[in-house]
């Protein structure tokens, strides 16, 4: 352990300077240009009788607020930390998770030297950490500082992240915003999804001492967060999500479709391709042709509720299949290693997509409330 700590300290000391975010090549998405977020986002809506219609995507012509998005662990670079070169993996995740927010806001998404999939696999195999997590955070902070200095111009901003990106957002909040009300003035909402954010059991604050979870759509400067699991596959005893070892704490869960609590039908935009690469085509309707749009919607089929069971706190996803209708009775989204499903990951790959329409709508609602409060 001591040797590993010394090695990590040496790596941090020798880390190169943070990236230059005046260089637009270091941004995955920025307004006013063609990039990973200005792509086709149409969705095929599959009705219970198998009828299909296409829901076209339309970006806001003149959005009044901004969204700052940090992507999850997707880098395929063969190193511990990624470089800043935009690859297909980063483009794909921006399309799947972030680009739809252009319906309501300008989207800023920096590249950052994240811990790669290779480093994650090594850690899961019990090997020493081969990456410097501090390097990725330093990049994200530098990107956000650059955005605030050059692009924000007094606009409200929603902070969004998934998985490793959510951890970056949480760390940014802890270091730069928690307990600093003046800095929070321009924060409309925070959405760190697919990440264990601890709160005091039964309370709305915890790790973030002064920034609560959201209880209504008119509340601003608050957090919307959850980790998702199927109702049929709850978090196992040893799980990386939904459980905390901190005494008196629990993992926060907020349902973006029902912030006041309870179950709600979710406005899910399910990607027709995998978050991490190519995947076999899904038969979204029985005997139907392959869906060719980037997203598919199955109205009324996916519901979600925040639950506390067996010491775990999580977003429970329930499907409402009908074997008699024309639609598929299941959705993809589990983390698979060959034929084996990793139950401790839950529906991590589609955390955001399960309620993506709700998250976009909530950002718009909270932005209107933020503007009114000003």
TrEMBL record:
The keyword Signal applies. Residues 1-19 form the signal peptide. The keyword Signal applies. Coiled coil: none annotated. It comes from the Bacteria. InterPro entries: AB_hydrolase_fold, DUF3089. Pfam families: DUF3089. Keywords: Signal. This is DUF3089 domain-containing protein.
């Amino acid at each position: 352990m001591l040797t590993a700590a010394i090695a990590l300290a040496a790596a941090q000391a020798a880390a190169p300077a943070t990236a230059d975010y005046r260089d637009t090549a270091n941004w995955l998405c920025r307004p006013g240009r063609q990039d990973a977020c200005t792509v086709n986002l149409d969705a095929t809506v599959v009705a219970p009788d198998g009828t299909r219609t296409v829901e076209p995507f339309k970006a806001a012509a003149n959005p009044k607020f901004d969204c700052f998005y940090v992507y999850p662990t997707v880098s395929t670079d063969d190193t511990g930390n990624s470089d800043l070169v935009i690859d297909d993996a980063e483009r794909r995740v921006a399309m799947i998770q972030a680009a739809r927010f252009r319906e309501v806001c300008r989207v800023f998404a920096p590249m950052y030297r994240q811990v790669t999939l290779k480093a994650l696999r090594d850690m899961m195999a019990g090997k020493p950490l081969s990456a410097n997590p501090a390097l990725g955070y330093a990049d994200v902070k530098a990107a956000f500082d650059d955005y605030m200095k050059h692009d924000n111009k007094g606009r409200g901003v929603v902070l969004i992240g998934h998985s490793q990106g959510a951890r970056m957002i949480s760390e940014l909040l802890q270091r730069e915003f928690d307990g600093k009300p003046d800095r929070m003035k321009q924060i409309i909402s925070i959405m760190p999804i697919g990440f264990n954010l601890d709160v005091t059991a039964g309370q709305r604050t915890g790790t973030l001492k002064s920034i609560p979870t959201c209880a209504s759509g008119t509340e601003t400067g608050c957090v919307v967060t959850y980790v998702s699991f199927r109702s049929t596959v709850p978090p196992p005893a040893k799980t990386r999500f939904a459980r905390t070892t901190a005494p008196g704490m629990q993992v926060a869960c907020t349902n973006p479709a029902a912030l006041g609590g309870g179950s709600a039908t979710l406005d899910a935009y399910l990607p027709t391709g995998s978050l991490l690469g190519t995947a076999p085509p899904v038969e979204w309707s029985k005997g139907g042709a392959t869906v060719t749009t980037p997203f598919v919607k199955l109205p009324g089929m996916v519901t979600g509720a925040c639950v506390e069971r067996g010491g775990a706190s999580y977003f429970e996803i329930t499907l409402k299949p009908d074997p008699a209708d024309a639609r598929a009775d299941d959705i993809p989204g589990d983390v698979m290693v060959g034929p084996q499903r990793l139950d401790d990951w839950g529906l991590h790959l589609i955390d955001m997509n399960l309620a993506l329409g709700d998250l976009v709508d909530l950002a718009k609602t909270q932005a209107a409330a933020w503007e009114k409060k000003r």
